[in-house]
Amino acid sequence: MNDHLDLISKLNSINDSDIRQATFIPNYRNIIALIHATQALLLPELHVRNLSNDTTQLNTSLNTVTSNALDTIERIIFHELQAYTSNAAEIRETCNQFINTLPTIKKLLLT
């Protein structure tokens, strides 16, 4: 149970400065809002998981939520970048750079 509470604590500790470091991403405030929305989706799942014995089902549910959250983050970044360049490889690389600049979020969302 302490692991789950630690995960909740880490999610709550993510702040705007983590995202602001990715200066090559346009309109970072939208990304911050998206991260906060992702946290809001994840926290109820984690609280439920703390109280349930059926960890397999809840882990599957949590993984679905987190996978969808990552996909949504990447789609929004991709859309933002299309306003600046039509080079698909450059857009994909920048999306990857953004995900890699947030290792804490990536680790939490994929575990």
Any chance you could write out the topology, listing elements then pairs?
Blueprint: H1 2-13, H2 16-20, H3 28-51, H4 55-82, H5 88-101, H6 103-110
Helix pairs in contact: 1-3, 3-4, 4-5
Describe the structure.
The chain has helices at residues 2-13, 16-20, 28-51, 55-82, 88-101, 103-110. It has 111 residues and is mainly alpha-helical. It has one domain (2-110).
- Portion of residues in helices? over 70%
Structural class by SSE content: mainly alpha
User: What is the general shape?
Assistant: elongated
Evaluate the radius of gyration.
Answer: 15 Å
**Approximately how much beta-strand content do the residues carry?**
under 5%
Distance between the termini: 15 Å
Mean pLDDT: 62
Total domain units: 1
**DSSP helix count?**
6
- Assembly classification: single chain
Task: Summarize this entry quickly.
The chain has helices at 2-13, 16-20, 28-51, 55-82, 88-101, 103-110. The chain is mainly alpha-helical.
Key terms:
single chain; 111 residues; mainly alpha; 82% helix
